[in-house]
Design a protein that fits this description.
With 360 residues, the protein is mainly alpha-helical. The chain has two domains: 7-195, no CATH class; 222-354, no CATH class. Helix content is 50%, strand content 4%. The strands form three sheets. It has a two-stranded antiparallel ribbon. The chain is elongated. The relative contact order is 0.10. Bound molecules: zinc ion (ZN).
Length: 360
């Protein structure tokens, strides 16, 4: 992904922590053959006032408790272990820990877990935890863009809200469904067209894979240096390069990101192909306004052209993520490299864009 979110946005995770504490207390009582404390005493002190009127939570905890009481000690321990492991988000994403999915647990407990944590997830909105979490992230990201694609813009905090993705899918890992550490603001396209309920932890064949940690990620940029200027398809606006989209590091995290979000395909089909011609036109207008475009072709040396592309690429490199500047920067950096290496065909192609043959 292109950048990460500040971990401080997940600090107000009290509802999830409180819920985990209550579940541990229920398990401990049942294992000791005691009756768990009644509602609202079972709510840890600091949160009791805030939660005691939430009877929806009370009812779902009761259903959970009744289900656990019917299971063996060994089964109860597996559930408790899954509760713990599914929330080791950082270790799971880096493949340093594994966890059981809900389908690996006794049938009897599956629905009660799902319903309990689904309810807790909704409570995040009611208790205004979700909005504070989003606002902190929105404020910390100056470009207000989706870090998974870099192309979708985030709206300012308001209702309706931006999509909040369960990074570890709630259908498989429901114990993490209310954990802010697992909840990630995401652009709507990334969320509802690509990520969906895909399992970020395992490939289709069931093997484990590493994924970027949205709250502990430096971010990477694409490079187009090895693209071939005249080897791509001919679109309605003309010939485009054969794009070779590479990333600074070629890690397993990058591979998972591309597999889940179709990054290379989207950059090529949605941005690079349709934008190439208009970006060259933008370059022409910039050359005019920067006074580096002479009246005649003869007054314009190849070196001036190469230097102009370099300045333009640098300008967009400095703009960062906003308005897909990082992709435009990569295109012009690639064009600069090829021209600087003496690609005659490319030099005259760009010359013809800047000073069309009829005006020569
Ligand atoms: Zn996105």
């Amino acid at each position: 992904m292109l950048f990460g979110y500040p971990i401080s946005a997940t600090a107000a995770n009290w509802l999830h922590e409180c819920l985990c504490e209550i579940l541990c207390s229920i398990h401990a009582s049942i294992q000791a053959a005691k009756t768990p404390p009644p509602w609202p005493e079972i709510i840890p002190d600091p949160y009791r006032n805030r939660l005691q009127k939430r009877t929806g939570l009370k009812d779902r905890l009761k259903t959970y408790q009744i289900a656990v009481e019917q299971l063996t000690i060994a089964e109860q321990e597996r559930i408790l272990q899954a509760l713990h492991d599914q929330n080791e988000i950082a270790l799971l994403l880096s493949c340093q820990r594994n966890c059981k999915a809900i389908t690996d647990l006794p049938t009897l407990i599956r629905e009660p877990v799902k319903e309990l944590f689904e309810f807790a997830f909704k409570l995040l909105t009611d208790l205004e935890i979700r909005d504070k979490h989003y606002k902190e992230i929105y404020d910390a990201v100056p470009s207000h863009t989706c870090p998974f694609c870099g192309c979708e813009n985030f709206d300012a905090p308001r209702v309706p809200r931006e999509a909040l993705d369960h990074y570890l899918a709630e259908s498989k890992y429901p114990f993490a469904a209310s954990n802010l550490r697992n909840l990630v603001p995401m652009g709507n396209k990334c969320n509802s067209r690509y990520k969906l309920a895909k399992d970020i932890l395992t490939r289709d064949d069931g093997t484990r894979r590493k994924s970027f940690d949205p709250y502990n990620c430096i971010g990477i940029r694409p490079s187009l240096e090895n693209s071939q200027p005249f080897a791509g398809t001919v679109t309605t606006t003309g010939q485009v390069p054969r794009w070779q989209i590479e990333f600074e590091q070629n890690t397993e995290e990058v591979l998972t990101w591309d597999e889940v979000f179709h990054i290379r395909e989207r950059y090529e089909k949605d941005v690079l192909d349709p934008k190439f011609k208009s970006w060259l036109d933008d370059f022409k207008h910039w050359c005019k306004s920067a006074n580096i475009l002479p009246n005649s072709d003869q007054e314009f040396s190849d070196q001036e052209l190469v230097d102009g592309i370099d300045r333009y690429a640098t300008l967009y490199e400095e703009m960062g993520i906003s308005d897909r500047a990082f992709l435009k920067a990569a295109v012009f950096r690639m064009l600069h490299t090829h021209c600087n290496n003496g690609d005659r065909r490319l030099i005259s192609f760009i010359r013809n864009v800047l000073i069309p043959p009829t005006k020569k």
